[in-house]
Every structure is written in C-alpha cells, then in structure tokens.
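User: Can you recover a sequence for this backbone? Please restate the input before giving your answer.

Assistant: Of course. Working from this structure:
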C-alpha cells in the first residue's frame, strides 16, 4: 500500500469514517426490543475492522455481505459508507463513487460521506467537485480535523507548495573556524 493510500486510510479510519455497525446496532436497538450479544451484523463489524487493519479487499468483501444482510437504515448507511472508503482504498474510485452517492442519497446531512466522496473525487481528478464536498462537509461539521486533513490533501494536489530552501554555507564555515580557534 503506497503512502498516499495510507494517508487516505488514516483520514477514513481515524475519525470513525469507517462507521462502526456496533454503534448502528445500538442506535437501532432503541427502535424496538432486541437482545444483541456482539455486533448484530458481524459482516459489517468484521469488514470495518479489516479495512482499518489495512486489508481493504477483505473488508469490501465482508461489507458487501453485510450490506446484503443489513437491517435498517443505520446498518445500510454504515455499509455504504464503508464500501465507499474500501473501494477507494483498493483503487476502484468509480465503484467508491457509486457507494458514496448512495449513502448521500439516504442522508444528505452525513458529513462523513461528503468527506469520503471528496477523497474519491480527488482520486478521479475531479477537483471542483472534491472542493465542493469538502465545503459541504465543513458546513455540516465545522472544525472537523478529518475534513481539514482532506482539505490539506486537496490543496497539496491542486496547489502544491514548492519548497524553497536555501542553505547558507557561510554560517557553518564561521562556526567551523570558531571551533578551530578554541582548540588552540
């Protein structure tokens, strides 16, 4: 996995952008009486864990099964969001975009999906759309460190800062002479 993909993974996983189905199950449990020991959808839980552990291919496979067995909108949203992230990490941004769009269609206030889709658009070279999703995400979740990280990746891609370093050898030469003088 290259360094760019590791950076994307840290952004996706670091703030819970890989949405835990355990949390989804807890929220869904409020809707009706259910006894759940462990995750209600083990495929979603295992898929998220595999993606976070650096095995996005296996994570996508498990999450696809989890999506097919999803119960309720929380689990579907978690699965779609994680598939968006997983497909991006296995370098299939077109597939990722489909899942991002589907989760946003379910919930237009889900800032994580905008962050994920901004990363997908960035990978596809669709910079205006990436920037728009970053702005939408920031409007929904002001101050998000993960959106700031995504914006930094965006800016590094569209307007990289060229390092201008000038090494002044004169100072080192003066210090070398002082050291020689002190030894006498």
């Amino acid at each position: 996995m290259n360094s760019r993909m590791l950076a994307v993974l840290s952004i996706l996983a670091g703030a819970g952008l890989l949405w835990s189905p355990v949390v989804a199950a807890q929220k869904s449990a409020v809707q009706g009486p259910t006894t759940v020991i462990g995750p209600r959808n083990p495929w979603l839980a295992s898929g998220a864990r595999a993606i976070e552990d650096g095995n996005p291919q296996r994570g996508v496979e498990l999450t696809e099964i989890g999506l097919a067995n999803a119960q309720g909108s929380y689990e579907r949203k978690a699965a779609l969001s994680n598939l968006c992230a997983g497909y991006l990490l296995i370098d299939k941004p077109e597939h990722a975009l489909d899942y991002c769009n589907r989760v946003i269609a379910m919930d237009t206030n889900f800032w994580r999906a905008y962050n994920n889709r901004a990363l997908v658009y960035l990978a596809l070279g669709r910079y205006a759309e990436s920037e728009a999703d970053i702005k939408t995400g920031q409007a929904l979740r002001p101050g998000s460190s993960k959106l700031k990280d995504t914006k930094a990746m965006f800016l590094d891609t569209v307007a990289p800062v060229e390092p201008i370093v000038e090494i002044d050898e004169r100072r080192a030469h003066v210090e070398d002479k002082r050291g020689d003088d002190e030894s006498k």
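That completes the design. The chain has one domain: 3-182.
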